[in-house]
Design a protein that fits this description.
heterodimer; A: about 625 residues; two-stranded antiparallel sheet; about 70% helix; B: about 475 residues; mainly alpha; 2 strands; globular
């Protein structure tokens, strides 16, 4: 029974996708939303049942093989790459997050996108995304994971560019796809190396073979882990492949909530957590993971401080929080990282969707400097937003608090992290609280800076999905994830390291220090004394606002040279060389045909010249 | 016998089509369609009901032809040729469907050329006497040139002549190699023979074998096509009518790959092994250069043509890796690329029929008026950049995984082609179907839906269940 349920899990949204694509415009809004949201509800319920059954059974794992895909022969034998699903504690967390949050977001989106003329196509793409994401987290081998990986990339591309008539959206979608492709290529090379080295691509088999054949610090392990990190970095928008995420906000808000906050961007985190067996054998790469996480955390936190668009603040915030997850994984705090993945999904989805409601109320206005005073005008949305923000800032009692503290607690004495990274995390928490307060003050406090009439959405479905997310964000910290068997590994803690006693206190106090700082620093925004609050325009602000210049760097380093060379060689220089041949032949043709001019004098002269030459040759 | 019936039957049907067109208008295309379907079913039926084991090369016909030179009329089949002949028949039917409305004048002569070309191609895939092989090689070339020259676009004469000369020069080198090999065979065994199975037995000293192999290699590298002898392809594709491009990309390029397997690698294994690093470098250059050139184009068909060059680079890399997994990957890539580029060229033809332009700058926002076409274009662009779930991914993945065992550095460079293909795939799809709407175009008709639907279905089936194809590729010629 459970095998069947496991195999069927991605098929509900897949069937919904096929029906929505083929029937498309012929479906009414009710029919289309019933189909898509219903499929999600079925998936969410199945996931819940499966996870429950797994916890009750004495096996730790469920597997379900759908069909055999292909086999690869190597020197050591044959490895079968099949369409097989593998459910353990880690994938249980993932499927619950994906289908549960997915269901709530689909519900919200059904109302939010109601008036769009391409509603069916939108819900179809959302469903297809869920199919791909489920395949990604349930795959038992790395090639099937890669299928889900590329699938979510494709759906992300389709959804970012959903309103394809706008050139900006088209380019943002292209950027997202190509930047993540760079990461995917690194991952693919890692797979080739993995197969050559271990002869295996099945995840469990790889971990076992790696433990058996490689010592800690093995060279193959190093390169493979590094390449897998490359793949993760692309999908999760970490340094140096983070440039696509802010632009991805061009898509509709439910897309930003689902893909670019709760699920797709966490795929990289999932990959590293899943392949922890390999990463543990490459401690230097784990250090890289931690440093990538920490630097992205700080960079994104700083960038979020100066954004003018509400969605971009949330985008950089997502980037920053995923940095926390990477930091956790790099430090060896596997469970903490996954726990933060789950709680972050709750409150970030809440924040994005509420922001969407606010944007809709203001008739698609996204500029923070044209908002203000919304606390009085939109009390429900404001309350929900506050709930999301306090979870983001990790104030005590919220789910964000439990997960973030769990991460920070393990940083100081980790052998692959250490005190400097602990400080990075603390500064990051400070930045988080500062930009959160700035966001709140600008949007919800102070005087109103908008002129339009508010369009208040009274849909109960909309409110209900948001309230459930708010409840999860507040109470989600109480969910205990039993990830012990998955990560039953030797701790990476440095032995005999004495942690200072003030670590926990500082960590808990940091957000409050940030709030206090913002209270005074951003008092202008908070009180809204005059109506002249505008975004600062000097060059430092512009540099920070543009993601610290990475876009410009890549533009000059990679994009312009490639386009230049492509344009320069558009006519293909190799072809031109070969056409020289043709030119040469034609030259002879033209020259020789000039001698065939029908003029008798020319022929007589040629005749005479030839005789002279002949006589000369004979006599000499 | 069955093969002879098919080959000569197709030629005769070509004549009938030509003749019938004079009697009743538009009857030629029905004759062509009917003959392809009939012969395809006949072929499939004969293969299925045959008791022979096709994992080895099975000789089907062998009669003396030009006995003073010991040239025979010899045909044989194995899994590789069967797979490619089935692909040929499928794409031939697609070609007829694609040309249905597009070709309006001299229809009889057109369908004669189409049928003759297919007959020649089938002959190429099953000939095992080297002279006969060369004969069919030339036979398949002439109707193709005619198709480009007569029914092509504005610069068709130039493209046809270029195509013809390129192939002829390389074929000349191959002819010299064939004659030289026959000469060595006769010196070694005392008897003159052009028979393939005989040639597998001889032992030529390595330095000579390298030159002979090179002669064959150049001919097939031109056909593949591989950089630096690729430049006939973009012009030929751009100027050919849609069915011409479909046939060219779908099947003719595969004859090059087939030749590499059958006559370069199997006939001169040691020489090929020594040559492998150079071939690998050429392959990687094709992959990357093709991707870069594709990105730079503003002509839709030219873009797709360069993407073909890029994909066939994967095939060459896989073949010269001398690895069983890579070999399987090469076979799948050949079939997958045949189907996907046929699909892309069909779509390009459909767009051209509507707006009479191949320039990407004239296109934009077509999804709005033609969403079904847009959906198929997206799917086939996905095939071009190796989206998993479609057959091209399996082919590329297996080629690279297998080739990595032999050429790690080259494969890492080739993997950069994945990024390159994403870039030109994006340009291909977004410039035409996304963006601001420039004009209204009609969505797919039933006939066009049949073409694109069947191609997508086959790509999906092979992509999700490649064992259908792989069980025939298991019998990898002993490497």
């Amino acid at each position: 029974m459970s095998t069947f349920m496991l195999s069927a899990l991605p098929f509900y949204p897949l069937v919904s996708f096929i029906l929505l694509i083929t029937l498309g415009k012929r479906l009414s809004w009710q029919q289309a939303s019933f189909l898509s949201v219903g499929a999600m509800a079925l998936s969410a319920i199945s996931s819940g049942v499966l996870v429950y059954q797994l916890s009750q059974s004495n096996m730790h794992v469920f597997t379900a093989q759908l069909w055999s895909w292909f086999s690869l022969k190597s020197n050591t034998g044959t490895t079968d790459v099949n369409f097989t699903f593998y459910l353990d504690a880690l994938s249980s967390v993932m499927i619950c997050v994906v289908t549960g949050i997915g269901f709530l977001i689909h519900l919200f989106a059904a109302v939010y996108m109601k008036s769009d003329e391409n509603f069916s196509r939108f819900m179809a793409y959302m469903n297809l995304f869920i199919v791909a994401m489920l395949i990604l987290v349930l795959a038992d081998n790395l090639v099937l994971l890669y299928l889900g990986w590329e699938g979510v990339g494709l759906c992300s591309f389709l959804l970012i560019g959903f309103w394809y008539q706008e050139k900006g959206n088209v380019l943002a979608a292209r950027k997202a796809f190509i930047v993540t492709r760079i990461g995917d290529t690194a991952m693919a090379i890692g797979l080739f190396m993995l197969f050559k080295s271990l002869g295996q691509l099945n995840i469990v088999a790889v971990s076992e073979a790696a433990q058996a054949s490689w010592q800690v610090g093995n060279n193959d392990a190093y390169w493979i882990a590094l390449l897998l990190l490359g793949g993760a970095v692309g999908k999760s928008a970490q340094l140096p492949l983070q440039t696509w995420l802010p632009d991805a906000m061009a898509g509709p808000t439910p897309v930003s909530a689902l893909i670019h906050a709760a699920t797709m961007v966490t795929a990289g985190v999932y990959l590293i957590a899943r392949m922890h067996g390999v990463f543990l054998l490459a401690p230097e790469v784990m250090q890289y993971v931690a440093w990538v996480g920490a630097s992205t955390l700080l960079l994104a936190g700083v960038a979020a401080l100066v954004q003018t668009d509400i969605k971009r603040v949330l985008a950089y915030s997502t980037m920053s929080q995923i940095g926390y997850m990477m930091l956790a994984l790099g430090a060896g705090a596997w469970s903490a990282g996954v726990f933060h993945l789950m709680t972050h999904a709750f409150f970030k989805a809440l924040l994005f969707l509420t922001a969407g409601a606010v944007i809709l109320a203001l008739h698609h206005q996204q500029n923070l400097f044209r908002m203000g005073g919304l606390l009085k005008r939109l009390p429900v949305e404001s309350t929900l937003f506050i709930i999301g923000l306090i979870c983001l800032m990790a104030l005590p009692g919220t789910s964000g608090f439990f997960s973030k503290e769990a991460i920070i607690a393990e940083l100081w004495s980790s052998s692959t992290a250490g005190p400097s990274l602990w400080w990075c995390a603390i500064i990051g928490a400070l930045l988080t609280s500062i930009y959160s307060c700035r966001l709140f003050f600008l949007a919800f406090l102070g005087k109103e800076r908008f002129e339009t009439q508010l369009h208040i959405e009274k849909s109960k479905l909309l409110r209900m999905s948001l309230i459930i997310l708010a409840a999860l964000s507040l109470l989600g910290g109480l969910i205990s994830l039993n990830l012990q068997e998955v990560f039953a590994v030797v701790s990476t803690k440095v032995v005999n390291m004495n942690e200072p006693s003030w670590l926990h206190t500082v960590a808990i106090l940091t957000p409050f220090i940030g709030i206090a700082f913002s209270w005074f620093f951003f008092s202008r925004y908070r009180l809204g004394e005059n109506n002249e609050i505008v975004a600062k325009q000097n060059s430092i602000y512009k540099f920070l606002r543009n993601g610290l210049g990475f876009d410009t760097l890549y533009q000059w380093l990679l994009i312009r040279p490639y386009c230049f060379i492509a344009k320069l060689n558009q006519r293909d220089i190799i072809d031109q060389v070969i056409m020289l041949n043709a030119w040469y032949v034609r030259l002879w043709h033209d020259t020789l045909s000039m001698t065939q001019n029908g003029s008798l004098r020319w022929y007589a002269a040629a005749f005479g010249l030839a005789i002279v030459c002949l006589v000369g040759v004979v006599t000499l | 016998m069955m093969l002879t019936i098919i080959i000569f039957g197709l030629l005769i049907c070509g004549g009938i089509a030509w003749y019938m067109e004079g009697i009743k208008q538009h009857s030629a295309r029905w004759v062509a369609l009917a003959s392809f379907v009939a012969f395809a079913m006949f072929f499939a039926f004969s293969i299925i009901s045959s008791s022979q084991n096709f994992s080895e090369l099975q000789s089907l016909v062998r009669i003396a032809w030009i006995s003073s030179f010991n040239i025979e009329y010899a045909l044989a089949l194995d899994h590789l040729s069967i797979t490619l002949i089935i692909l040929t028949f499928f794409l031939a039917i697609i070609c007829v469907l694609v040309s249905w409305q597009e070709i309006q004048d001299k229809q009889g002569f057109y369908y004669f050329n189409l049928l003759a070309s297919i007959a020649g191609i089938i002959g190429v895939f099953c000939a095992v006497d080297l002279f006969l092989f060369f004969f069919f090689w030339e036979v398949m070339l002439l109707p193709m040139t005619a198709i480009i020259a007569i029914w092509g676009h504005e610069n068709r004469h130039f493209a046809a002549v270029k195509f013809f000369i390129f192939t002829q020069v390389s074929s000349l080198l191959m002819l010299i190699a064939i004659i030289a090999t026959a000469y060595f065979y006769s010196k070694q065994t005392g008897a003159l023979s052009f028979y393939y199975q005989d040639w597998l037995e001889i032992d030529i000293p390595l330095h000579l074998a390298s030159y002979l192999m090179l002669g064959f290699f150049i001919a097939f590298a031109v056909k593949l096509p591989s950089v630096p002898v690729h430049s006939w392809l973009p012009d030929a594709h751009t100027q050919a009518p849609t069915a011409g491009s479909v046939l060219l990309a779908g099947v003719l390029l595969k004859t090059g790959a087939y030749g590499l397997i059958r006559f370069v690698i199997l006939l001169f294994p040691q020489a090929s092994l020594n040559f492998a690093p150079i071939a690998g470098v050429l392959a990687v250059v094709s992959i990357l250069y093709g991707a870069k050139m594709a990105f730079a184009q503003t002509d839709l068909k030219r873009l797709i043509a360069y993407s073909s060059i890029s994909h066939m680079g994967f095939v060459m890399l896989a073949l010269f890796a001398f690895n069983a997994v890579a070999y399987q990957g090469a076979i799948i890539t050949m079939v997958a690329h045949g189907l996907s580029s046929a699909a892309l060229f069909s779509l390009a033809g459909m767009v051209y029929n509507r707006i009479h332009s191949r320039n990407l700058n004239d296109m934009g926002g077509f999804w709005q008026s033609a969403p079904r076409m847009g959906g198929f274009a997206l799917a086939f662009a996905g095939a071009a950049f190796g989206l998993p779930g479609l057959a091209n991914f399996i082919g590329e993945f297996m080629s690279l995984v297998g080739a990595y065992q032999h050429f790690p550095v080259l494969v890492m460079l080739a993997a950069l082609g994945l990024i390159g293909s994403a870039i030109y795939g994006m340009v291909l799809f977004q410039s035409s179907f996304q963006g601001v709407r420039t004009q209204y175009i009609a969505d797919l008709s039933i006939r066009e839906l049949m073409i694109t639907g069947s191609l997508l279905l086959s790509l999906l089936i092979i992509g999700l269940y490649p064992n259908l194809l792989l069980q025939f590729a298991m019998g990898a010629p002993s490497l």
